[in-house]
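Obj.: predict assembly geometry.
Materials: sequence records (below).
Method: joint structure prediction, all chains together.
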Amino acid sequence: GNSVTQMEGPVTLSEEAFLTINCTYTATGYPSLFWYVQYPGEGLQLLLKATKADDKGSNKGFEATYRKETTSFHLEKGSVQVSDSAVYFCALSEGNNDMRFGAGTRLTVKP
Amino acid sequence: DAGVIQSPRHEVTEMGQEVTLRCKPISGHDYLFWYRQTMMRGLELLIYFNNNVPIDDSGMPEDRFSAKMPNASFSTLKIQPSEPRDSAVYFCASRRQGANYGYTFGSGTRLTVV
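Observations (raw structure tokens):
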């Protein structure tokens, strides 16, 4: 079945460092891919998405490219801020099935 | 739009009591999902509805849990009787028809069973 694997955390970075959170997926067809962010005490919020191969999703300085050849959707940001500290979830959706989420990666950014 | 609205935000109850969590999805969204989040098990899908009909309840942990969606604008998740191991954050999410649409999550209900 469909599944998502993302890098284990926690990840700790200094402010202005480059961020990469790896995500790979397994799917039977052509899924849509998502990144969600969860700030402390809140629900998950959609950060960005890509619906077909080679699409790049971007939002708030974050970006991820849908790579069908490597079945990956890695999240990147060129310069993280303390306010980016949160848990990040990679997710996959195909057809009318429920979305499959990764385990989440906790990011802490230190000043 | 006000987003997905969950109530209450926090619930503390004694073991054995009945607990009812409520959710109002975004108008026009065809799907509604109930999730549970804990440190140990992460995010778990409990049940989801399409057009008010339960589609998959295989994630409901046991018969103590039940969920209903009497109309397109309201759903409940009930635990009876509650146990300490049910302590978690429960999220409701809704989505339009189609895989291209992401979920919109509510702010969650933090349940503590003592």
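Conclusions so far: The first strand of chain B starts at residue 5 and ends at 7.
To do: check interface contacts against the pulldown list.
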